[in-house]
Amino acid sequence: MLQCIFLLSDSGEVMLEKQLTGHRVDRSICAWFWDQSLSQPHSFKVLPVIASPTHYLFQIVREGITFLACTQVEMPPLMGIEFLCRVADVLSDYLGGLNEDVIKDNFVIVYELLDEMIDNGFPLTTEPNILRDMIAPPNIVSKMLSVVTGNTSNVSDTLPGATSSCVPWRTTQLKHANNDVYVNLVEEMDTIINSDGVLVKCEIFGVVEVNSHLSGIPDLTLSFANPSILNDVQFHPCVRFRPWESEKLLSFVPPDGLFKLMSYRVKKLRNTPIYVKPQMSSESGTCRLSVMVGIRNDPGKVVDSVSVQFQLPHCVSSANLTANHGTVNILSDKTCSWSIGRIPKDKAPQMSGTLVLEEGVEELHVKPTFQVGFKIMGAALSGLKINKLDLKNLPTPAHKGFRAQTEAGHYEVRS
Amino acid sequence: MFSTTAENFSKASTMVLRIGTDAHLYDDPDDVSISPLLDSKFDSEKCEALKRLLALIAQGLDVSNYFPQVVKNVASQSLEVKKLVYLYLLHYAERRPNEALLSINIFQRDLGDQNPLVRAWALRTMAGIRLHVISPLVLVAVRKCARDPSVYVRKCAANALPKLHDLRLEENATAIVEIIGILLNDNSPGVVGAAAAAFASVCPNNLPLIGRNYKRLCEILPDVEEWGQIILIGILLRYVIARHGLAKESIMASLGPDIFNSEKSGSESDSSYLEIKKTYEIGIQEPELLAMVSRSYLAGQDKYLSHLDNSDVISSENISSQFTSSKNDENVKILLQCTSPLLWSTNSAVVLAAAGVHWIMSPVEEVSKIVKPLLFLLRSSDASKYVVLCNIQVFAKVMPSLFGPHIEDFFISSSDAYQVKSLKLEILSSIATDASISLIFQEFQDYVRDPDRRFAADTVAAIGLCAKRNPKVATTCVEGLLALTSPKSINSTSGSMDDDAVVLIQAITSIKDIIKQDPTNHEKAIIFLIRNLDAIKVPVARALIVWLVGEYNSLGTVIPKMVPIILKFLARGFPSESIETKHQILNAAVKVILHFKGEDFHTARSILSYVLELAKFDLNYDVRDRARVLRKLLSCYFISNGLEENADNNEIQLLLAEHIFREKIKQSTEMVNNRFYLPGSLSQIVFHAAPGYEPLPEPCSLTESDMVKGLEEPSQTEDSNSDVDSRSLNEEGSYYTEDSVTASTGADNESAAIESGNNNADPLINFSDVGKPQEETNDLSELMSKGALESWLDENDNPGSSQNVAGIDSNASISSARISIGDISTRIKPKVYTLLDPTYGNGLKVVYKYSSEASTISPSLVTVDIFFENCSPDPMSKLSLTNEDSESLDQGSSLEPQKDVPSFVPMEEITILEPGQTIKRVIHVNFHHHLLPLKLILWCNDKNHPVKLRPDIGYFIKPLIMDLDVFSQKESQLPGMFEYTRRCSYTDHLAELANDDKDGSESSTKDSFLIICQSLASKMLSNANLHLVSVNMPVDANLNDASGLCLRFSGEILSSSFPCLISVTLDGKCFEPLNVSVKINCEETVFGLNLLNRIVNFLSEPQLTS
């Protein structure tokens, strides 16, 4: 079981330590960790499980903050990692983002949360809804109140009823003036196009997000028009397994607020909405580069926020790139980003120019990979369609809403 | 509306963001004095002070000095103050045990509170402060909370059990297991999850406990919280394997045909055998690997490893393990059924745990069920992606067909971390099939051009691996790799040189490996490389090519013709080559000469002698030496072959030369040194068995009779011995030993032996009623305030040293020499205490000292010598000592053990004491193992003087004679919490050394070590009734450096006859004050701690009389 959790800032400073068991861990382990990560910058920082001389360390990095957990005995490493991810999620939800200042400013809340989330190295209460009932998140109203009245308590003095209910994710006795529930399909497209321009991988990773503001204990059933494409899924704990196994229905009692009801993956898609064609040819110390972007299969909705980004190879000393549409930026870390925005109807956007190679390099023999971004509102490219949402056990009728959107995930074009 | 304006406000000014937060507290936690705030009567001020303390803790400062003030506030009604105090308390309680005890009454009160949150917090904190003294109270509290109406409190009760277990108090073990049993049976899934976690950390081998609830646990599994699921899945899997064995349709059982042939049940198994044989042929490519994996999942891996080179033995042994059926056996079926929906969990740890169960137990044809959920996890966080890939790697190696259809999931994305990329490459190369290899190679082509050259090099290595596994594609691979080595693709610039060199070297290494498989087919590749030799500048790459030249010098028809020319070319350039290339040129030249005949031989020989001549004057000694050795060996070799006629025959040289040049040394067979651990375990990621890792239990090691027994004695653990004998005994139900593999069960073992003694011994602190579950809290607090505990607390001035400095002495005996310090009995002068001063006693002086002699009346009595001296001019009469209370003049009742007050066996009355006369009397005192003073009345001339005889804990023990071996053995049985260490400084020896210098300046001075040891030993023996076991000094001791000197003493507690071991280790220079580290190993920890304090006190106290 976990013995200690440390929060490190991006400069390696230990901002917080929380000892979890009687076997205390000295914070010198953080110094060891930081030295190691400095001495092997590339490989070490991403290694999630590290065997140090005295402890096994689990680490995740979120927005510059390193969450470090220590143990000395065998335990499922994913449990440690998942727990740290959960801590990071809850903290960033409470504090509205993660950075060094916000953690230091709210260290008491961080301590209170950690104390509630883990007991003796084993997770205790990790459900965000219950945590919110136990420890009030800092918001501007409570901050002002505390300044005015001097009362600073954010610890609830009663145990949330949800801890004992059979639906622990839902706060009991909820009342909303307006009952409404929104279902969003948020899809990300992961694509790899190889150097021959062949589509080697194209899949959709989608999430059914539900934003529910319903009173009482409602019972919802969501059905899809084409559930057969869903054979690779993950569910929120609230989803009942039986109806899904028998009829592919999502039957659930929702938590309050926004949550991910289901994630799904649709593999082996044949088409991408846009094409990106890079061309490179190099001779005698310079390299000509041109990238063309255009609509391949019109999804019927506007393709927006199109961008192309790539890393210039090390041996490139300078680059001169221009585009007939959008703007090209070359950052100091040799990242080149071309933001196109909406693709115009009349012309195909193109970026072209030359890369000057370092002295002595005749030819460019490493090829950069182009990361493509886009966003399509109103369409789910996987083709998944919601059939209907049934609401039961509601005191008053509720408003229902559906939306869909697709973004580029890991959309890569190799040159 | 208010919230929207508030939001605008927050956007308006970033400064506002920090208002109302605790920012100022973190930045300057100690800008105001904290103490007065803690004593404030306002909760808000207390809160602020506590927050400041918390900030200091967060920043790593030690603020334990506020402990007493903070503890007072535990009684606060404000929940926020309470919470903050608890946070502080848990951080420091172990360091300040005495003050922490002050909070116990409040916890007791809170445990009866209406609010379940208050009850839960109180329980959590009380269990978390880890004090041995209160463990009985915690146990009662946990027992009570385990039946609490609130789910949350019951969950906290389950979480408190590992904390209690962690104190390793044996008397609690049974009760803890019993409570776990109760909680596992709870109706609420949340409680069951926490109970499972407690089970896994307290008694993971007590599988009969699971057997009682197995079906119910399976059914409740999907409703348990995600964290509990992870643990519970593992427990259920262990139980099923131990109880019912492996499923015969599973991958683990499809080791090979032998098993099924040898199975006795006829037709049924035959059909299943055929069925499996079929899938086995499709799915598993490397049965040896599978055999190894499945063996290493199960217990008894070490035995297996020792038999590694004889695989027949393994499979025949394996027959004996028993199988069940995942299709027919209800228990296996229900486990698989209940874990299947968990494959859809959003928690990657749950998915991996569930996948592990299916991997091991489900029928081969259904294992593919785990593939998609596992691959889905690759979309979760980067950290879990790495761990999941590590596990997939093993699955893919054993059963490549599982992941064959999903190769594109392992295609590399540029955002992947380097480790993830290389794992994916490895998986890709192991799942490649004839159908998919072309697609994979296409991908690899892109990777080779990746800007990350290290990754490109890894890709090249992977290509080599693929070619080795699929010989059909070897030629294509070699062609592709050769293209990489061609001069065009090599950058000659300095900037990217190092990076590209890695790729180049890897490419040639891969080619070399492929050629090794089938040299004749790759002649052209060798020629191509040789032709490029001129263009390739990287030393390692050149060396590799030269090696190829030497190794394959007689291959085909073209190469032998080229070789002399190449050799000449190399010989000419020899001086300018790098060291490794020079080595290879020498090697190659020798290899060539051994193969060549006739004309070529003479050419080669002259080249060789030229090269050897050059090497003789090389700057590098290694090259010179090699040349010398080769020259010598070659001459011997030529002699033996009659190629040269002369000189001295040296048998050994000949033999050596023969072996080296005729390849008589067989290549050692390749050892597969991969170790496998259970899927999802930490050990699998770090590639060694982490502490606490246990493989799956031996199949069917849990028999019906074990189940019954286990229910009777829940604290006992299962035998996991893997002998066939033990199994047969198991069936008779007569074989029942405890597992002594792990430390915890080892401790169990030992406690069982002592248990009998434990029962009739007087415990130091007697909570007589703690065992009863229905205890009222009020009664407990009464118990708390009873004298026993407080009498200890008075004595405990500074037990803050309870932190455990483990292992300080564990290896001290390894390299040490024993010293004999001679007879020091004359130097042992027990301290003399005054009972009555002559000024108060009209000239009567009474002093006493503790005697080291055992009492003649009862072994639990302490013997005290009392000296009466008449300092007055008149004689005295009728001197006697009696107990303080007049009633207890009655002698018979004074020794009744139920009385807690010290009592004594009265002495003979002294009728007359002449002036100046001293009379000695011996009394036997029973202190009842308490440090309460014995109140006495001293009668003299019919006048009474109340006096107090103070107990000395050093005499609550008696010497226990043992030798060093017994000592170290006993010491090793009392690790961890039974061990306490404190340090102090010791100065007495300085005076003696100074004296010694003066006295013996002319004669040979005594060894200073000896003086130190004698002084220390006599001081110890003068103050405590101990036996000196040994005096050791380190072998490598320096003069005047006393570090490492170690004195060991042993004793036995009078009342309980527990052994008490004391080691005193010195550190420092002889002529300076020494640092002494005193370590006590004693089962009775509180006693040990007090004795330790006493020893440290008298050791650091300077000697009064010279």
Description:
The complex is a heterodimer of chains A (415) and B (1106). With 415 residues, chain A is α+β, with helices and mostly antiparallel strands. Chain A folds into 3 domains: 4-149, 2-Layer Sandwich (Beta-Lactamase); 180-269 and 381-414, Immunoglobulin-like, CATH 2.60.40; 274-377, Mu homology domain, subdomain B (Immunoglobulin-like). Chain A is built from 8 helices and 23 strands. In chain A, strands 11-13-9-8-23-21-16-19-18 form a 9-stranded mixed β-sheet, with no helix packed on it. The model of chain A has no long low-confidence stretch (mean pLDDT 86). With 1106 residues, chain B is an alpha+beta fold. Among the domains of chain B are: 27-237, Leucine-rich Repeat Variant; 562-671, no CATH class; 800-824 and 957-1100, TATA-Binding Protein; 827-953, Immunoglobulin-like (Sandwich). In chain B, the strands form 4 sheets. In chain B, strands 3, 13, 14, 15, 16, 17 and 18 form a 7-stranded antiparallel β-sheet that branches. In chain B, α14 (189-202) packs across α16 (226-244), α29 packs parallel to α31 and α35 (579-595) runs parallel beside α37 (621-640). The longest helix of chain B is centred in the middle third of the chain and has 21 residues, at 497-517. Chain B is extended, with a radius of gyration of 40 Å. Classes of the chains: A alpha+beta (415), B alpha+beta (1106). Chains A and B meet through β2, β4, α3, α4 and α5 of A and α1, α2, α3, α5 and α7 of B.
List the helices and strands and how they pair.
The complex is a heterodimer of chains A (415) and B (1106).
Chain A: E1 4-8, E2 14-19, H1 28-39, H2 41-44, E3 49-51, E4 56-62, E5 65-71, H3 77-95, H4 100-105, H5 107-117, E6 118-119, E7 122-123, H6 128-134, H7 140-149, E8 180-193, E9 199-213, E10 219-224, E11 233-235, H8 241-247, E12 250-252, E13 257-266, E14 274-283, E15 286-295, E16 303-311, E17 316-323, E18 327-330, E19 335-341, E20 350-357, E21 369-377, E22 386-392, E23 399-414
Parallel strand pairs in A: 8-23
Antiparallel strand pairs in A: 1-2, 1-5, 3-4, 4-5, 6-7, 8-9, 9-13, 10-12, 10-22, 11-13, 14-15, 15-20, 16-19, 16-21, 17-20, 18-19, 21-23
Chain B: H1 2-12, H2 14-18, H3 23-27, H4 34-38, H5 43-58, H6 67-72, H7 79-92, H8 97-101, H9 104-111, H10 116-128, H11 135-145, H12 151-166, H13 170-184, H14 189-202, H15 208-220, H16 226-244, E1 246-247, H17 257-262, H18 267-283, H19 287-297, H20 301-306, H21 311-319, E2 323-324, H22 330-339, H23 348-361, H24 371-376, H25 382-398, H26 400-403, H27 418-431, H28 437-448, H29 453-469, H30 474-485, H31 497-517, H32 523-531, H33 539-551, H34 558-573, H35 579-595, H36 598-616, H37 621-640, H38 651-661, H39 682-686, H40 704-712, H41 724-732, H42 743-760, H43 777-785, H44 787-795, E3 816-819, E4 833-836, E5 844-850, E6 862-870, E7 876-883, E8 903-905, E9 910-913, E10 918-926, E11 934-940, E12 943-949, E13 957-959, H45 964-973, E14 979-986, H46 988-999, H47 1008-1023, E15 1027-1034, E16 1046-1053, E17 1059-1067, E18 1074-1082, H48 1085-1100
Parallel strand pairs in B: 1-2
Antiparallel strand pairs in B: 3-15, 4-5, 5-6, 6-10, 7-9, 7-11, 8-10, 11-12, 13-16, 14-18, 15-16, 16-17, 17-18
Helix pairs in contact in B: 5-7, 7-10, 9-10, 9-43, 10-11, 10-12, 11-12, 11-13, 12-13, 12-14, 13-14, 14-16, 15-16, 15-22, 15-40, 16-22, 16-23, 22-23, 25-27, 27-29, 28-29, 29-30, 29-31, 30-31, 31-33, 33-35, 34-35, 34-36, 35-36, 35-37, 36-37, 37-38, 46-47
Protein name (chain A): MHD domain-containing protein
Pfam family, one (chain A): Adap_comp_sub
Organism (chain A): Tagetes erecta
